[in-house]
């Protein structure tokens, strides 16, 4: 009789464990990644291709997989170095005609060929509230930032890959005072 109770207990425990596993699997498959009713529907590096700039002739490689979405590829991305990029911006950007102050943020992808595209632009004042900046200033920095000569081809598992990148320009009285990251 004792053995019968032990066997029934083990069988019931196995059934409950299996039912728990099925319930967890069902939840993971159907609900855990459902973003339909969540405030943040996309991953960190998501850029809406319908609203993005410079998308006409921009193609992502590797079935559109994007690497470095959580930290950006800033340490490896600048061709040459960040100092070279900063020097290029400082010498090429004509700041004599602008008086704006704020932040100009570019979020974008660089494909496996080193071409930048799918840009999202966010303009803010120095208090980090969305506020438009001079369109010519934005266009000038957009042109400089999107230039493929600035971006390195990054390999991952010995193959060139697409990656996510962002640049924030701090602008004070029309002059770029800081480039982040």
Q: What does the model show?
A:
This protein is α+β, with helices and mostly antiparallel strands and 181 residues long. It has 2 domains: 1-41; 62-180, no CATH class. The chain contains 4 helices and 6 strands. It has helices spanning 2-30, 74-77, 82-92, 135-146; strands spanning 66-67, 102-110, 116-124, 154-156, 159-172, 175-180. Strands 1, 2, 3, 4, 5 and 6 form a 6-stranded mixed β-sheet that branches. Strand 5 (159-172) and strand 6 (175-180) form a beta hairpin. The protein is elongated and about 95 Å long.
User: Multimeric state of these chains?
Assistant: single chain
* Radius of gyration based on Cα positions: 25 Å
What is the chain-wise order of helices and strands? HEHHEEHEEE
Biggest sheet architecture: 6 strands, mixed
- Secondary structure class reads alpha+beta
Q: What is the tally of helical segments?
A: 4
Shape: elongated
Number of strands: 6
Ranges with pLDDT <50 over ≥5 residues?
none
* Rounded average pLDDT: 81
> Could you give the distance between the termini?
72 Å
Number of domains: 2
Helix proportion range = 25-40%
């Amino acid at each position: 009789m004792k053995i019968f109770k032990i066997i029934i207990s083990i069988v019931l425990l196995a059934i409950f464990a299996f039912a728990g596993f099925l319930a967890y699997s069902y939840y993971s498959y159907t609900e855990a990644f459902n973003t339909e009713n969540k405030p943040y529907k996309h991953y960190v590096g998501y850029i809406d291709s319908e609203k993005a700039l410079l998308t006409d002739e921009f193609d992502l490689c590797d079935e559109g997989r994007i690497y470095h979405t959580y930290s950006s590829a800033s340490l490896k991305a600048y061709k040459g170095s960040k100092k070279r990029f900063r020097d290029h911006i400082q010498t090429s950007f004509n700041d004599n005609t602008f008086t704006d102050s704020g932040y100009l943020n570019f979020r974008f992808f660089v494909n496996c060929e080193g071409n930048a595209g799918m840009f999202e632009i966010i303009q803010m004042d120095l208090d980090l509230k969305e506020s438009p900046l001079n369109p010519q200033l934005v266009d000038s920095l957009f042109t400089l930032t999107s230039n493929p000569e600035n971006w390195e081809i990054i390999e991952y598992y010995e193959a060139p890959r697409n990656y996510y990148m962002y640049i924030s320009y701090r602008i004070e009285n029309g002059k770029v005072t800081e480039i982040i990251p």
